[in-house]
Amino acid sequence: MLRFRLFGFPIGIHFSFLLLLVLFIDSGLSGVAVVLWAVAILVSVILHELGHAATVRRFGGRVEGITVYALGGATVWRESGRRMRPWKHFVVAAAGSGVGLFAGLGLYLFVRAGGMGEAASLIIDAPWRVHLRLADLHGEYLTFVVGAFIWVSVVWGLVNWLPVGGLDGSKMLRVVLIRILGPSGDLHARIIGLIVGVAAAAWFWQRGLILGAVLILVFAGSDLVAYRRSRGSV
After folding, report:
1. Nearest to 153 by CA among 20, 63, 42
2. Is pLDDT of 92 > 80?
């Protein structure tokens, strides 16, 4: 695992992150573009996790470390001293995608304003519609990595707010429902997560995004299984 510190936070990049390069091998992109895709994802994930970590620090918590994996990242933290109020847990969970969306949309507006030239404006048509193959074909690699970063930060940021197990949206919903329903809110949040996960997987599947559909189902199902195991061990 590659380890370093950024803004005082210990960060580790797990070897599984290299699997992303394997996933893009059959994408039809050049070797340079595949590497730049991985770089854009890495920067976006680290920024996302720094959003969580900085918020934890702001609320007086202690960040143990950040780890980047092939399918995302994780920020390990704990409370220090007085227990955090529920709304702070909600903000911590929301902060990762919030920071990513702010950076991605801000960069998108800069591009659309002509900050990177006319070619970049044509390639980065919308945050969720970036013509990366065109950028690769014409050797516009700066535009490629910027467009990839915008797409990952905005699209994945919004998906990550879905109330599906394993995603930040599930943690946010859990805080709200436990506040309203008490301890049973935890189970209700996970059941809602499974339902939303199935619906999201169907949406991905219909658009040919098979990997996305499978991952959403895995996240939703494993979260409910983890809950049942935790209840059975009590």
Report:
1. 42
2. yes
